[in-house]
Amino acid sequence: AMAAAGAPARALLPTVLLLFLAVAEAQVDPMSNGAVTSALNAKLKKLTDAFAPQVKRELGYCIQDTYWDATFNFSSDPKFLVDCMKKGDLPQRVCTAAELKFYFESILRRGKKNYVRPNKNCNLSSWIDGCEPGWGCTADAGKEVDLQDAENFPSRTVDCQGCCPGFFCPRGLTCMIPCPLGAYCPQSTLNKTTGVCDPYNYQPPPGQPNHTCGGADRWSDVMSTDDVFCPAGYYCPSPILKIDCSSGFYCRKGSTIQTKCLSKGSCKPNSTTQDITIFGAMLVVALSLVLLIIYNFSDQLLTNREKKQAKSREAAVRLAKETVQARERWRSAKDVAKKHAAGLQTSLTRTFSRKKSLSSHESSKGGGVPHPPEQHRADHPSEESGEKNTGSPTAEVGGDKKKKGGKHAHTQSQIFQYAYGQIEKEKALEQNSNNLSLSGVVAMATDEDLRQRPRIEIAFKDITLTLKGSKKKLLRSVSGKLMPGRVAAVMGPSGAGKTTLLSAIAGKATGCATTGTILINGKQEPIRAYKKIIGFVPQDDIVHGNLTVQENLWFNARCRLPVEMSQAEKVLVVERVIESLGLQPVRDSMVGTVEKRGISGGQRKRVNVGLEMVMEPSVLILDEPTSGLDSASSLLLLRALRREAMEGVNISMVVHQPSYTLYNMFDDLILLAKGGMPVYHGPVKKVEEYFKGLGIVVPDRVNPPDYYIDILEGIVKLDTNAVNVKDLPLRWMLHNGYEVPRDMLQSSSGSESSLSGEAGGHAPQAEAKKSVLGELWGNLRDILGQKKDEYDYNKSSEDLSNRRTPGKLRQYKYYLGRCGKQRLRESSIQGVDFLILGLAGICLGTLAKVSDESFGALGYTYTVIAVSLLCMIGALRSFSLEKIHYWRERAAGMSSLAYFMSKDTIDHFNTIVKPIVYLSMFYFFNNPRSSIWENYVVLVAVVYCVTGIGYTFAIFFQPGSAQLWSALLPVVLTLFSNEQKDSVFANLCYTKWALEAFVIANAQRYSGVWLITRCGSLVKMGYDIDHKITCILVLAANGIVFRCIAFFCMVIFQKH
């Protein structure tokens, strides 16, 4: 027990010894007792210099050098020292190092007991008056007192008297110790009613009428006794002076000066604290006004910008239409003029012919020479050429003048005029053409200045996909070719592998072992190297619901179109897609979410397709784009795709039950049977001819694709003369001369019955032989293989697309603008977050008042838990709801780093504002001694840290699990770090560093008489007074580390 108490006692010893440093420097009146004062100063100065290194080594965790002057500097009022010197030999009455060490060891061992262990001067056989509390004695005559002696007690048994005011004399010791600043140690007086020496709690010994009440009896932590603490409502500039707190000021316990109130009328005389809740309300109002101003200004700015764009667009559309109409009127007038000129020429020719005939008749008589008949045509050589040059507007569509104007268009009006001028010309070309397959696009594509898309032909042979773990075959021996400029439809019953086939062609079939050959333009190259010019439209409508139609399309265009492409050309691409998909009426409408309705389902589907069309792909793959669309919307969509095909795009799409009109708009058909086996792959026009050769004839008034799918599903039974349904894949392979797998030959119709019987007998046994562990291992291998393939696809560095898209920095700029708009439109959710934080601050600030004993540790513990929980759940929204959007954009080649950094940058707004919202309530209701700025800095670090943790949960877990983890983690870590303070895991808990930073910031405001309390509390909690900056840096480092973990999880882990 002695060893256990010795370490903290040795640590507290220099605290008291160094108080004499100020005494040595005090400007004591030399006329009072100059010789004695000089001698005392010299001894105490030497003593404090000797103990300075020990203080720094053993008390560095709770005391800093800057606190000594505020604790033991009596130079402002040394009157109590002078008065004590006048009573006797002060150096002979002051405790030595050994006595101080003995006192604090006894106090720490016995806790709240107000006595020390027996010693040389006070024991069972010798108990003099100086051993009583509040009394002390002088060292024996002729003995020199060595204050630095930390081992031996001097003998103090003579001239016992009451302790000097400003000093305290412990019970069981016969020496005096000066009281620190912030203490009030007057001479006590006997309360005849209670028999207690007021203001202390000790009694004079009975039967000794000459033993009166002395001075203070002990200085300890405030929980043991607060007798020597300057009471609240008063301030004590010296240990013997207590002054009432004035009106307009407040004085906390242990104050040496009075603190001015922010509002003079809020503090009456002897106020212990000030009521600053009104200032918290004012801060909330001011913050609300600032946020409303920012929101309204940003919203007004965006609204004005959109209105300006809309006006420029409408003016450009109007100008383009007027230009086209003027051109049409000019062409009509020119045609009329040509007809009139042709009629006049005919009449003149007849007149001249009659004259020529008369002249020739006369010349035959008179011998004249005839004129050549071609003279008129030679005199007017420009008429026919003029007709040729002015008859077609094609030359104007891609002319050099317009191309130059488009490239050099910089203002919004010029860009829209260029874009809509081109669109109106294309419409005019389509109207003047007899070809319904958008020959205007072909006419424009022949312009020599028009940028051509690279053409990609995809040929695949014997493609077989097998799951890596379970060995299940998804596709079997699929061969064919997808040609640029053609639209191919992939059809088949459910489970036929239609989406799997297109995913395999696009290089997105993950978790599978792929065999066979895929050739790109006749070369064996990885399809992943062309992902920048491959568009893949998923079956689900993955569109940002809190953005408008135009914003969704424009963002994709800016991030995926070539960086060298001008702004005007990008606008033209986007406007062309909006026009072709029929999205012009809803271009400025929100797409909508589940909670907030936006555009219709069909329009949303078209926006989903438009996201890939705006990047001008060379290969466009669509997974069921017409599902859920009516016939008109499907026709509009397919016409837009036909337009893309006329520009050389290789288009293939999965289609379910197309109408006969849509069916005839496809160029090629890929028909798959169940099990991923091909039944037909070729031109649509030859489908019926092929199946007719197999004995399958489509009945009248029946849609051919529906009939074929019903056959493959087994709904329609074929005649006995027709081929067996199970032999259709084999017949197709034999028809094209493909190599047929051996198992397909064995399962032909000839041996169908026997083999089916065998299979029926052995299948259960084979299934029985499969172990559960083997099946689990196979599924695990499937998942791991899929993750690896997804990572390889997204991280493939080879690029053969010859397209240079914007870099990470520019994409970060685009993402930042998009995230800013999204957060601005989610302001109501942000407002709810701020409201909940404010209410939490009010509740915790009211219930968990600051305790001087623990420096507000309880309230700060609740603060760490509440702020962590609320901010962590708020951070989940940044990534939980947009995982599927990120996966689509990442697969398209967009930067993951730019996406992550933009989200984090926008969340810095919450990192700055949320601490203000919380502290505006908590701080002004709780009113701790630390400044609001110190609390704000710590809370910003806490919010930054927990936001990173929230990112990790949002990305790694599903939304429900992420919310559960966010609610449990702060509570569990706080409890663990408080119970297991010295463990390694506790140092890894961010809650330990957050609470330490808060407590230290508050504890630094407790000095003077509070030093023992502060050192005891800090050593109990395991905190260090110098670690405030370290705590903030650790919290920031945790935030950075968890953000790195979140980014790693975002890149590695994807949807199964």
From TrEMBL:
<dbReference type="Pfam" id="PF19055">
    <property type="entry name" value="ABC2_membrane_7"/>
</dbReference>
<feature type="compositionally biased region" description="Low complexity">
    <location>
        <begin position="747"/>
        <end position="757"/>
    </location>
</feature>
<dbReference type="GO" id="GO:0005524">
    <property type="term" value="F:ATP binding"/>
</dbReference>
<comment type="similarity">
    <text>Belongs to the ABC transporter superfamily. ABCG family. Eye pigment precursor importer (TC 3.A.1.204) subfamily.</text>
</comment>
<keyword id="KW-0812">Transmembrane</keyword>
<dbReference type="InterPro" id="IPR043926">
    <property type="entry name" value="ABCG_dom"/>
</dbReference>
<dbReference type="InterPro" id="IPR027417">
    <property type="entry name" value="P-loop_NTPase"/>
</dbReference>
<feature type="compositionally biased region" description="Basic and acidic residues">
    <location>
        <begin position="373"/>
        <end position="387"/>
    </location>
</feature>
<keyword id="KW-1133">Transmembrane helix</keyword>
<keyword id="KW-0732">Signal</keyword>
<dbReference type="InterPro" id="IPR003593">
    <property type="entry name" value="AAA+_ATPase"/>
</dbReference>
<keyword id="KW-0472">Membrane</keyword>
<feature type="transmembrane region" description="Helical">
    <location>
        <begin position="936"/>
        <end position="956"/>
    </location>
</feature>
<feature type="region of interest" description="Disordered">
    <location>
        <begin position="322"/>
        <end position="410"/>
    </location>
</feature>
<dbReference type="GO" id="GO:0140359">
    <property type="term" value="F:ABC-type transporter activity"/>
</dbReference>
<feature type="compositionally biased region" description="Basic residues">
    <location>
        <begin position="401"/>
        <end position="410"/>
    </location>
</feature>
<feature type="signal peptide">
    <location>
        <begin position="1"/>
        <end position="26"/>
    </location>
</feature>
<dbReference type="Pfam" id="PF00005">
    <property type="entry name" value="ABC_tran"/>
</dbReference>
<dbReference type="InterPro" id="IPR003439">
    <property type="entry name" value="ABC_transporter-like_ATP-bd"/>
</dbReference>
<keyword id="KW-0067">ATP-binding</keyword>
<dbReference type="InterPro" id="IPR017871">
    <property type="entry name" value="ABC_transporter-like_CS"/>
</dbReference>
<dbReference type="GO" id="GO:0016887">
    <property type="term" value="F:ATP hydrolysis activity"/>
</dbReference>
<dbReference type="GO" id="GO:0016020">
    <property type="term" value="C:membrane"/>
</dbReference>
<feature type="compositionally biased region" description="Basic and acidic residues">
    <location>
        <begin position="322"/>
        <end position="338"/>
    </location>
</feature>
<protein>
    <recommendedName>
        <fullName>ABC transporter domain-containing protein</fullName>
    </recommendedName>
</protein>
<dbReference type="InterPro" id="IPR050352">
    <property type="entry name" value="ABCG_transporters"/>
</dbReference>
<feature type="transmembrane region" description="Helical">
    <location>
        <begin position="276"/>
        <end position="298"/>
    </location>
</feature>
<feature type="transmembrane region" description="Helical">
    <location>
        <begin position="1029"/>
        <end position="1053"/>
    </location>
</feature>
<feature type="domain" description="ABC transporter">
    <location>
        <begin position="458"/>
        <end position="699"/>
    </location>
</feature>
<feature type="transmembrane region" description="Helical">
    <location>
        <begin position="831"/>
        <end position="848"/>
    </location>
</feature>
<feature type="transmembrane region" description="Helical">
    <location>
        <begin position="860"/>
        <end position="880"/>
    </location>
</feature>
<keyword id="KW-0547">Nucleotide-binding</keyword>
<keyword id="KW-0813">Transport</keyword>
<feature type="region of interest" description="Disordered">
    <location>
        <begin position="745"/>
        <end position="764"/>
    </location>
</feature>
